[in-house]
Design a protein that fits this description.
The protein contains two helices and three strands. The chain is of the alpha+beta class and 76 residues long. A hairpin with a 6-residue loop joins strand 1 and strand 2.
């Protein structure tokens, strides 16, 4: 099972490119978890309460935390 990740606008790509290589690797690791794992640890991927399918993707690197908000589309 693979989920499709779609970024809207260029902000995420610009943000990714502005990070050092270690942070980029961590971002890629977490996004791959979301993309390929059936159950993603809540540490990295959490449905926001009182929303209709909005999730928070969390990336931790040393003492920094990065967050992306995504919407999941139903699979057909």
């Amino acid at each position: 099972m693979a989920r499709e990740i779609i970024f809207f606008g260029g902000n995420v790509v610009e943000f990714y490119k502005s990070q050092d290589s270690k942070v980029q690797l961590k971002i890629e690791y977490v996004l791959d978890l979301v993309r390929f794992e059936r159950q993603v640890p809540i540490k990295f991927f959490k449905k926001l309460e009182s929303t209709n399918g909005i999730y928070e993707v969390r990336i931790f690197h040393h003492k920094k935390a990065f967050e992306f908000f995504v919407s999941m589309m139903k699979e057909h």
